[in-house]
Amino acid sequence: MRILLVDDEPSVRAIVAELLELEGHAVVQAENGPDGLAVLATDGGVELVLADVGMPRMNGWALAREVRARYPSVRVGLITGYGSTGPSDPAERAVVDFIIAKPITDESLQVIRRPRGA
To answer: Is 118 domain-assigned?
Structure first.
């Protein structure tokens, strides 16, 4: 799968990218939401956007809403280190296909293999 990984922390981004690549995925990286959207505009092969929730400029939820509006066939997953897994409103949560809690493990990344809506 071709995955766009968006995280403002270079060390976290590098580790997650390595884990995904070890699973056989091709990973494109961006350090923030606007850069991620720019990648999507030029790379039509991205199948999944995986983004950190807590980023400056555009947080993961805002990025997820933009991705869903512009590229409805692209799956969206969020990574969070916060105690809460996101908005309590089901409609708001529906913009993402899954949420992965930190610390990220090989096992937690298995959710990526599931088809959209599963």
So the answer is: no
Asked if residue 83 is part of any domain, the answer here is yes
Number of domains in the chain: 1
Strands (E) across the chain are located at: 2-6, 26-30, 48-52, 75-80, 98-101
User: Along the 118 residues of the chain, how does pLDDT read in single tens digits?
Assistant: 999 999 999 999 999 999 999 999 999 999 999 999 999 999 989 999 999 999 999 999 999 999 999 999 999 999 988 655 566 667 777 899 998 888 887 888 888 876 555 4
Write down the pTM of the prediction: 0.89
The CATH code of the domain that includes 91 is 3.40.50.2300
Residue 97 burial (CB count, 10 A):
21
Q: Note down the domain range covering 85.
A: 2-113
